[in-house]
Specification:
This protein is mainly alpha-helical and 195 residues long. It has 3 domains: 9-38, no CATH class; 41-107, no CATH class; 116-194, no CATH class. The chain is built from 9 helices and 3 strands; from the N terminus they run αααααααβαβαβ. The chain has helices at residues 9-26, 29-36, 46-61, 67-70, 84-89, 92-96, 116-123, 148-158, 175-187, and strands at 139-144, 164-169, 191-194. It has a 3-stranded parallel β-sheet with strand order 1-2-3, covered by helices on one side. Strand 1 (139-144), helix 8 and strand 2 (164-169) form a beta-alpha-beta unit. The longest helix is centred in the N-terminal third of the chain and has 18 residues, at 9-26. It is globular. Residues 25-30 and 32-38 have low confidence and may be disordered.
Length: 195
């Protein structure tokens, strides 16, 4: 005679699936962002967050850009809506729509590929061919402590094989920042990282 406890495999499966669903449901959107985007500014008002999300979703809906293939500058999703021509022309009315409460904060990419091939493709895309500089390169020196992606963009904008980039990292900088800067210096021979 077999005993039946009223459990079937279907009930056990349903129970096992429902536990994670309930756990996910109980995590608020703010906690969710904190889990997956730890550097996201949680002090933003709900209206501001909605504005940021709206712009990000709009940029992502436009799909991936072929800018790398076309040999033009690739904007981040947070800044794809910015009309650089109007900014460079000094359109003050337009600039007011991009500053203050309208400013979209850059969101740190927690899964940024830090392999040498990825770093090289971001800083020295294959479509760029550098001509030798007639007067030699320029040396850049900075003390850095945060915003690795911003620093990488600055290097990209100023990059030439003859230029030298020297970075001193503040001791209080997070370990991940130190690691990212070390990867950058190991991948590009003209980047010097001071101890």
């Amino acid at each position: 005679m077999e005993r039946s406890f009223g459990f079937s495999y279907a009930k056990i499966g349903t129970l096992l699936l429902s536990v994670p669903c309930v756990a996910i449901y109980t995590v608020t959107y703010t906690e969710f962002l904190t889990l997956f985007r730890p550097n996201f500014d949680m002090t933003l008002s709900d209206e501001r967050k909605a504005f940021v999300y709206e712009k990000m979703i709009e940029a992502l809906r436009n799909g991936p850009s072929n800018c790398e293939e076309e040999g033009v500058y690739c904007k981040r999703p947070e800044t794809q809506h910015v009309d650089c021509g109007r900014v460079l022309e000094g359109d003050k009315t337009y600039l007011q729509t991009l500053t203050g409460d309208s400013r979209i904060p850059l969101i740190v990419d927690p899964i940024l590929n830090m392999s040498c091939s990825a770093i090289n493709s971001r800083i020295r895309p294959s479509h760029l061919h550098f001509e030798p500089l007639k007067l030699g390169g320029t040396a850049f020196a900075r003390i850095v402590y945060t915003d690795y992606e911003f620093i990488e963009k600055q290097v990209q904008v100023s990059y030439h094989p003859q230029n030298l980039f020297c970075f001193a990292i503040d001791q209080k900088a997070p370990r991940e920042f130190h690691d990212n800067m070390k990867s950058l210096s190991e991948c590009l021979p003209n980047i010097i990282l001071l101890p």
